[in-house]
Structures are given as structure tokens and as C-alpha cells.
Design goal:
By secondary structure, the chain is α/β, with parallel strands linked by helices. The chain is built from 21 helices and ten strands. Strands 2-3-1-4-5 form a five-stranded parallel β-sheet, with helices on both faces. A five-stranded parallel β-sheet has the order 7-8-6-9-10, sandwiched between helices. Helix 1 runs parallel beside helix 11 and helix 13 crosses helix 21.
């Protein structure tokens, strides 16, 4: 692959200066247009070490308005807090808002390579790297599907040039980023500087991650003038194309679903909610004893999770007034607040809307040994956003796959996921609404939005059914909780949580 590129290409200083002036002006103009059109841009720079990446990036960003881009140098060792997070989650926080440009000097690729090389055996390297590349491809595809323009540059130099620059660095006593990294990690990373041994590894990585939504551009970087101009021209072309696609009449949605009615095929719906037995109840004495038992178990299990560094995510979804708040309260009543947090999720603010919808949840993903409880979650994309028309049909249909992938990455990183849907019937909801209206201490809980949502009960029911069927996976199943009786509902949540944690900790 890489041997096909002609690394002898050069540009004279005079030619560079003449072209650079025009390209800088065009880049600045396109940056402003992309901002106006809210097109988010991600530029990833990878390449051989000592390939001149820092110099080429610096030349490139001098064309840009610094208010419109963010720069991320990713070669430094992650802090302790970051290492406690699942791999791909670490990078979501650096994704730009719509209209801005994020420039990555090294990226998730370098981090994946280095962390995989820290494994003891070659077999471990390959297995771990396969997982990382799968995560990265899904991560980039999700961003691409959401309108992000992703460009990835690999700066390629010859083995001879690589040796010359490395020798010059040593001669001039210029520190390599690896020097400090090796001191901190205790790992020998000379393998990365060994051109011949590293070449097959690099080519395999490029081949497996060169996708239409996030293509690689190989930059012949023996000559820095040539490399800089090629980068600038490639970015200009990509942004121009993205602007053209954004401003023209939208094409047909790319995600197609069979119209069963048009084909004359009957609808064979398997209703999950219709089969829920909402008559289940629990008396006060049984509730009191069970609550004490399971809260004590859960308190002990919290410390077991911490000792074994297993993060736990608990998602609560359900009808308005189904008892999510009460269930969460009993769940955390005896827990250590240093090891858990409850995240109430409401409508996204302007900054959150300017990102991919999963972005705002990544900060709250717990570090190893901690617990995060979501009072509503990323499932808003396929529930309220779907029903209220806050996203397109293509977006919410695409979200089923995106959510399943997101949760799979978490579970692969050791996160235990519990998802509860609290089910009540329409009459019970009405009774609870009315009760809140006439209770001064609970009146604040009922809003006009609750009544509006109730008026669209059937629409939400269809959305819930599809959500339960399409996002209940082997490692992150939905647990439907019969919640007409609050006591029964709370004990089922407590009991299920303790049982799942006990089972997962045994594995």
C-alpha cells in the first residue's frame, strides 16, 4: 500500500509561498462558511514519528481563525481519571460543536496502538487492536452519519528520511514525546521507531479504517512544502464538497425500510407491553423486609464493584409518573455517595444540540468501580425526539444501531449495564397526575408537558415497543418493571440490581 507513493515529490520555497497565500485565503473563507452552515469538521493527523507532523499542522492552522477551531495533542499519557474510562468514551468530550473544527495531533489511533503494545504478548496485541479498530470504525461512522466531516491524514516518509530525522533529533538533543512516556509507563516503545517492523502494522491499520465516511489521505511528507500544500488542498476540496452537499436539495434518505402495507403483507406485531401483568402487588410488611434485605446487599455490592473496578450504569426510562424518582431514591438510600451519582436528563441545551446526541452522556459514564444512574437517557432519541419530531426519521431509525454499538463498547470495557422500563397503565397515570395536582408538596412535579405527552400515549407506546425490541441485547437487556404498585416496582428494581451485580461479579 504505502510503497506505491512517490516520496521524491518536492515544492520549491518560491512555489510554496506563491500557492500558500491563495490557499490560506480560501481556507479562511471556507472556515467561515462552514461555521455559518453549522458543518462540524474533524481533522486527524497521524504518521511516522519524526515525520514533521507538528510543523505541518502549525503551517496549516495559521490559515484559520483560532476562535473557530480546537487543537488536541493526544500523545501524552492519559491521566488516571481517563484510564478509568472506557476507551472510546475518552474522545467524545473532544468532539467539536457544529460549525467548528477539531484538529487532532495524533488521535484515538495512536492511543489504541500504544495501549495495545503495552500488552504482554503479540496475541494480546492483535486481539486488543482488533477490538479497538472496531470501536473506532463505529465511532467515526456514527459521527459521519450525524453530518460530521472527518478527514484523516497519514504523513508518510521513507525509511531513509525517518533515520535522518531521528538522528538529527538526537544530535540536537530534542526530546521525543516517548522519553517521558516511557519513564511514566515503564514500557519500552522502541518498536514504534523501528520502521521495518512497524510498517506492516501501520498498513493493516490504514486498510481496516479507510472508510467512505472517514477516509485516509496519505501525505508524501519527505518534503515539508509539498506535505503542507497537499494537506491544505485536500481540506479545501473536502469542505467545498460538504458545503455543496449541505446547500443543495437533500437527497432521498439512505436508510430504507420495507413498506409492508404497500406489499400487502399483514402487520404481525409482537407487543411486549401488552403482556405485562400490572396486577402484581406487594403488602407493606413484605415490602419493608425485602427493602431492608436488598438495600443491605446492594450496599455491600457497591464496595465489591469498587474493589474489582467494575463500573455500573443503571438506566431508568418509563411513563411520566411511573415512579422513576422513587425507585432511584430507594436504590441509593444506603449507598456511599462518593461512589455513585444520579444524572437527571432533560432537554438538551444549545451546546448539547450542537454535538452528536451521544456526546452529552459520555462525561457521565462512570470510571472503574463507580456507579452512574441515569434518570432518562440517550433513549430520548428514539422516544420523545422521535414522537415530537425533534429529529428526522432517518436519525431516529439510525439510532437503534448507534445505541446498541455504544452500549456494546461499554460492556466490552467491563461496564455492567442495567436498563429498567417502568410500565404503568393509562388509568394509573391519570390518578397519579391528579394526586400531584392537589398535593402542595408534589404539585411541582406535574407540568403542561406531562399532559401533552399523555395525549400522545399511543404514539409513545409504539415508540416504546420498538425501542424495547430493537435495543434489548445480550449484554444490555431491558427489564420491564410492573409499576402500578409502587412497592412491587421498587423491590423488583432492588432485587434485579443485586442479582445482576452478583452474577456479573462471578464471571
Amino acid at each position: 500500500m504505502l510503497e506505491k507513493f512517490d516520496l521524491s515529490k518536492t515544492i520549491t520555497d518560491a512555489e510554496y509561498k506563491k500557492s500558500e497565500k491563495k490557499l490560506k485565503a480560501r481556507l479562511g473563507e471556507l472556515q467561515r462558511k462552514a461555521w455559518d452552515l453549522k458543518i462540524p469538521v474533524i481533522l486527524v493527523f497521524e504518521g511516522w514519528h519524526i515525520s514533521g507532523m507538528a510543523e505541518d499542522i502549525n503551517r496549516f492552522i495559521l490559515s484559520l481563525d483560532p476562535r473557530g477551531y480546537s487543537f488536541h495533542a493526544m500523545m501524552t499519557r492519559p491521566c488516571y481519571e481517563e484510564l478509568l474510562k472506557p476507551f472510546i468514551v475518552r474522545f467524545w468530550s473532544r468532539i467539536p460543536v457544529r460549525g467548528k473544527i477539531a484538529i487532532f495531533d495524533r488521535s484515538w489511533y495512536s492511543r489504541a496502538v500504544i495501549e495495545c503494545l503495552e500488552k504482554e504478548s503479540l496475541e494480546s496485541h492483535e486481539e486488543e487492536m482488533g477490538k479497538r479498530l472496531e470501536e473506532i470504525n463505529c465511532f467515526e461512522r456514527q459521527l459521519g452519519d450525524d453530518g460530521y466531516l472527518i478527514m484523516k491524514f497519514f504523513l508518510h516518509i521513507s525509511e531513509k528520511k525517518h533515520k535522518e530525522r531521528f538522528d538529527n533529533f538526537k544530535k540536537d538533543n530534542i526530546p521525543l514525546i516517548f522519553d517521558d512516556y516511557e519513564k511514566e509507563s515503564g514500557k519500552d516503545l522502541d518498536f514504534i521507531l523501528n520502521y521495518k517492523d512497524y510498517l506492516p502494522f501501520v498498513e493493516k491499520l490504514l486498510e481496516k479504517t479507510d472508510m467512505p465516511y472517514a477516509p485516509w489521505t496519505i501525505v508524501e511528507a519527505n518534503d515539508r512544502n509539498f506535505a503542507t500544500l497537499k494537506i491544505m488542498m485536500a481540506v479545501i476540496h473536502a469542505i467545498e464538497t460538504s458545503i455543496e452537499n449541505t446547500t443543495r436539495t437533500p437527497a432521498e434518505q439512505t436508510l430504507k425500510y420495507l413498506n409492508m402495507e404497500a406489499l400487502g403483507v399483514p402487520q404481525l406485531n409482537n407487543s411486549t407491553l401488552e403482556n405485562v401483568d400490572l396486577s402484581k402487588k406487594m403488602n407493606a410488611n413484605e415490602y419493608k423486609e425485602s427493602k431492608k434485605l436488598y438495600q443491605q446487599k446492594l450496599s455491600a455490592l457497591q464496595y465489591e464493584l469498587f474493589k474489582k473496578k467494575r463500573p455500573l450504569v443503571i438506566v431508568f426510562e418509563g411513563w411520566d409518573a411511573a415512579g422513576k424518582g422513587g425507585g432511584i431514591y430507594r436504590l441509593v438510600e444506603n449507598l456511599n455517595p462518593r461512589l455513585y451519582r444520579v444524572v437527571p436528563v432533560s432537554s438538551p441545551n444549545d451546546i448539547e444540540k450542537a454535538h452528536h446526541y451521544l456526546w452529552r452522556f459520555c462525561e457521565a459514564i462512570p470510571k472503574a468501580g463507580h456507579i452512574t444512574i441515569f434518570d432518562r437517557s440517550w433513549y430520548g432519541r428514539v422516544l420523545v425526539e422521535r414522537v415530537e419530531g425533534l429529529c428526522s426519521e432517518e436519525e431516529w431509525k439510525r439510532a437503534y444501531r448507534e445505541i446498541n454499538e455504544f452500549e456494546e463498547f461499554l460492556t466490552q470495557a467491563g461496564v455492567i449495564i442495567l436498563k429498567f422500563w417502568l410500565q404503568i397503565d393509562k388509568d394509573t397515570q391519570l390518578n397519579r397526575f391528579n394526586s400531584r395536582l392537589f398535593d402542595p408538596e408534589k404539585k411541582w412535579k406535574i407540568t403542561a408537558e406531562d399532559w401533552r405527552n399523555r395525549s400522545r400515549w399511543e404514539d409513545y407506546k409504539i415508540a416504546v415497543e420498538e425501542m424495547l425490541q430493537k435495543t434489548s441485547t445480550t449484554n444490555a437487556r431491558w427489564i420491564v418493571v410492573e409499576s402500578n404498585d409502587k412497592r412491587y416496582s421498587r423491590i423488583k428494581v432492588l432485587k434485579t440490581t443485586t442479582e445482576v451485580i452478583e452474577n456479573r461479579l462471578k464471571k
